[in-house]
Design goal:
Length: 434
Amino acid sequence: MIKLSKYSMTLLSALVSTSALSTDLNIATVNNSHMIEMQKLTPEFEREHPDIKLKWHVYNEGSLRMRAIADIASEGGRYDVVTIGLYETPIWAKRDWLIPLQTSASYDVNDLLPSIKNGLSYEGKLYAAPFYGESSMLMYRKDLLQKAGLSFEQRPTWNDIQTAAKAMHDPDNDVYGICIRGKAGWGDNMALVSTIVNSFGGRWFDMDWTPDIDSSAWNKAVTFYVDLLTKYGPPDSQNNSFTEILAMSRAGKCGMWIDASVAASFLTDSSNSKFSDRWAYTEAPYQVTTKGASWLWSWSLAIPKEAANVDAAQTFINWATSKDYIKLVASKNGWASVPTGTRLSTYKTAAYVEAVGDFAEAELTAVYNADPNNNTLLPSPYTGIQFAAIPEFVSIGGTTGQKIAEALEGKISVEQALDSAQKIATREMKRAGY
């Protein structure tokens, strides 16, 4: 029989006691670069909070949504923190699935950009804290635009984009005038197509919640989109999403790219892009109106109603979405790598502005001007820009995206795509009792 000394017994008792008091915090998140960096900084958090151990559950975007909503709807309590967006937050808060967040004076909630903060609030309470935010913006090769004898001195219209795409298009030399999303999905091709539709004067629903997908504004917008990509985009655009277009842009194959503002931080990374110094940035194009012409999104952290460790979850969220966290990332990876689109103070930091150049002003302007409550030319009953914040939208948006991808591929006409999407959306809304 092994006998332990009094000192060893005391040490063992302390270790057991510490282990017993330690909280395992289960965090469900998405596998994008900013979230991966947050995981790498786990030792920094645990050093400050030795009583909390972070347990990561990392999924792709689709799996994250399915797992999170299944756990919350069933009151499973598997996750203490979930990563959700501007779409889910007001819906889940209304259903009483989330706990309102508590923020201290040092957190400085008033430093959050108003459009992001308002989109993550319900009935005046903040239900999710933004980890990073984004709008859509136009990223273009200034050298190719100059060679074409054109400029974007003011916010361009979609007609201006078409003119520039035609002038820059040089497929014989593997350069395409325009690269934009074509892959089907409510958060994929429809994120961009919705903003085009908005700018052409369209909307998802009228004030009676009747789908408006077969309207003339939708027809003009989607016809324009299909023609633009068919004539001046890369081959097989129906397969391209953010990742594919980023790779092409870094390789010098895209004259213009309209997508999430976060993309600019990847384009300006000289270690991965030999064209890093040739990109310029401005607001996303519009047509008949600027309302809803730029999307708005934020990946954010929230606490499910059934979370087992609410206090620890709040502590982690305050840390991960704070000013100090942004400074921590800057100290590790440089200011060009920090999560943006959430705090005004980031854009007031000289080191950040110097690191990213004109992108800082372009992104701040885009996020400020994106208003999810004033989102369409004609009145609409929903909040959201590239989506309608109702539970039924996932199905309706996904089906519409699939039909438009088929039109882009040439399998069906634009008219057939919109007629089919209209019928399916109408059936869904009637079934839901609207």
